[in-house]
Amino acid sequence: MELRTLGYFVAVAEELHFGRAAARLHMSQPPLSRAVKQLEAEAGALLFHRTPAGVTLTPVGTVLLDEARSLLAHADRARVRVSAAAGVATLTVGILGGGSDPGAARLAYAYRRRHPRIDVRVRDTDLTDPTCGLRAGLVDVALTRAPFDGTALAVRVLRADPVGAVLRADDPLAGRDRLRAADLADRSWFQFPPGTDPAWQSYWNGGTPREGPVVRAVQECLQSVLWNGTIGLAPLDHTLLPPELTVVPLTDMPPSRVVVAWNEGDTNPLVRSFLETATAAYRN
Question: Is the pLDDT of residue 32 over 80?
Fold first, then answer.
């Protein structure tokens, strides 16, 4: 099993849709489908149940997803250590996946123009690690959202976004102009896996312990809302939703802060330049 193919599989497993996974990987859908079929042939079992609406993981696929994530994370750590030993001019940026933020696009354009010879590597992460691999030493800097445990990290706020409740379009509350968290108290809210940063989990549960399905990726959250009526939360204006879902502003939720985070005391000039460029990109 090649690492690239495992990366394709993880993208499909997190997006639960071949088309969205192909877009995320910047490739067309047919070669992605062929790669997954080849992986299924190597595994000797189906990894996905396919439907017109998308895909779901089979039991074998669920096992492979955990293993593939571990293998890819190990490969990332190896690349970081080898690059450091070789003295290659690289910057590894962790980005919280699942959003559509024009500020991030402006930042990428401005940084590439400022440092055209630097090898910028991007690590797209799921919702289980708000530091995007920074705390694990997998990235040099993270473009993410707070709150999370900031021990030994430095954080700069770039923007604060109001938050809304993601609901099915036919939900009785979907027609409301605004909601309060108390209006959703009797509903199921999505949860992150055990071990996820407590401050991060608490924020996306409205500051109150909740019960609900465990998810890892944005698309899993949206599918949980669609299939089960689970309450999802999302920043207003920066989340692409299918027509079957809608978002209603939550008036008593603190805003979701877009931040750049780096290791406290890091003197890497490429990181300092990234901070300066990010501040300017999000200010414009």
Answer: yes
Give the C-alpha separation, 184 to 173, whole Å.
9
Instruction: Please say whether the beta carbons of 43 and 53 come within 8 A.
Output: no
Rg, C-alpha atoms of the chain: 19
Cα–Cα distances in angstroms (integers) from residue 173 to residues 169, 178, 184, 193, 273, in the given order = 9, 9, 9, 28, 45
- Tens of pLDDT, residue by residue over 69-89, are 889 888 877 766 676 676 667
Give the Cα separation of 35 and 13 in Å (integer): 13
Q: Which residues pair with 235 in a beta bridge?
A: 163
Q: What is the pLDDT of residue 99?
A: 58
Q: Whose CA is closest to 147, among 219, 108, 98, 96?
A: 96
- Beta strands, E only, 213-252: 232-235, 245-249
Q: What is the Cα–Cα distance from 220 to 170, expressed in whole angstroms?
A: 19
**173-215 pLDDT tens trace:** 999 999 999 999 999 998 999 889 999 999 999 888 889 999 9
